[in-house]
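Margin note from the TA: students keep mixing up input and output lines. Inputs are the sequences; the output is the structure of the whole complex. Example:
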Amino acid sequence: MTGSAVSTDTPNCLKLSATRLWISADLDAASRTALERACSTFREVSAGTELLGSDAHADALHVLVDGWAVRYKIMEQGARFISALLVPGDICNLDVLRFDRGDYGMTMVSDGRVAVLPRARVNALFASHSPVAVALWSLGLVENSMLMERMTSIARRSAMHCVAHLLCELLVRLRVVGKAEGNSFEFPLTQELVADALGMTAVHVNRTMRSLRAMGLVSVQNRRVTIHDWAGLSMLCGFRAEYLRLETIAEEYVRELPPGTASSEKRLLRNPVERFSIPSL
Amino acid sequence: MTGSAVSTDTPNCLKLSATRLWISADLDAASRTALERACSTFREVSAGTELLGSDAHADALHVLVDGWAVRYKIMEQGARFISALLVPGDICNLDVLRFDRGDYGMTMVSDGRVAVLPRARVNALFASHSPVAVALWSLGLVENSMLMERMTSIARRSAMHCVAHLLCELLVRLRVVGKAEGNSFEFPLTQELVADALGMTAVHVNRTMRSLRAMGLVSVQNRRVTIHDWAGLSMLCGFRAEYLRLETIAEEYVRELPPGTASSEKRLLRNPVERFSIPSL
DNA sequence: CGCCAGATTGACACGGCTCAAGCGGTGTGG
DNA sequence: CCACACCGCTTGAGCCGTGTCAATCTGGCG
């Protein structure tokens, strides 16, 4: 298939318990239910589908339910850089809530499904269930933290450490949303995409992966990554999960994480109390 | 001087009209006044002052009023990376509103002054003047956009284009807050700091600056950068100001920007209407 | 005057890029 | 069912941008 289809039937609303949206920790039961109900319009999207054209007007929040997507920029000389890797449970374009267009494009990397929430619908949700707004605000800050970490990685880590770090991050993120089986997960990215996400070339990603393989740390087969030695891999690249702000995730979803990635004593600030208004459209 | 002093006297509150906080466009007159009043506690900080220790508990929002600061991470092997350059008018640690600690440190690069707003005070402000909360939310998204752009720069631009791009960005940002005189501005960063912000080495920053100088594009004297050929410099590195989201800045402050940096037709979504609660502490 | 941090420059090494060829799986049309 | 095309993976050879190391220079300051 090449296009996309709109469906509102089975399931007729997003089950957070199934996709385990990252925002969980901020949400009381009522808000969670309301959010699930709001996510009732889905688009089945095939690999390669452009979710959002570069610089295009946007007016709906997209939540990735299934499949992987990338957020990218194309530079003058044609070079591409992938500024975000999106996996199930991620919100694709948080900035749509405040700005009417972004300066990036978004494409599906694999077949998948997105929930589409028109801005008006999100605003209504904010009005009736304020914790949802707070949660989305928090999510923006989490994204911020993740961007800083990847930038640090690109700027200061060697290619091998950089790739290793990415794999560590993905394992943790995918485990949270239940998309990993043990230390292994489906991995639809081509080496070229990895290169564009880490500021490298596909050729060098290839050589780097070979080294990691040779060291017995990871293996890749059939679009599936397996981390054979989590301790070794995370030690190698100095992976520390703090920046993922796992404290934003409701405890019931933070199970079976790789060792050393507990959210420790960091606190999420919550318990909404005061009221303030938010912008509509 | 080596420490810092608390002063609440002249001026006894922050004049937005003087520092031109980026958040202006979101704020009505009443909110703006309230925000100014809330910024009544200042710290005079000297160059080198640690505003926030790495991984330290934080509970106050800091607004940089005068001077430059950097947000940094130190990696295992001792390498440093500067994840943000902060100039007057910037908010230093937006994430303090949602998390109780960050994974970065913050240091003053020059002597300066910061306004300190305890979390409780910010929350009270949110309660009484909701547009302030919306403005801070927007600011977080702007920061996001800036991070993506710099990451793109580090990942895909050559050293020279990268440095050029940084200088372009700084000119625009400093003009907005009235800290540039024409195409020239004070520049307290050492070449080592620039290197740490762009993922390079100090030596190479030096060589790169020499090239830019040799091309007649910029010059540096007495800790002051002058851009002699804005068109040439911005063309060279493909600088486009969209990512700075200048539409978040009240129009009265967006004057005298370098050519080509108008905020064009992009809209900021505003007019707060609905209400939702926000977290305290 | 001596000291020191930062800027500058040179010589050299190396990680990662470029170019190019070959390989394997998979989908497709004859 | 085969032949072919295509895409992504793999590997090699050589180059170049950037890092490393180290020395010198400069201006500010006690």
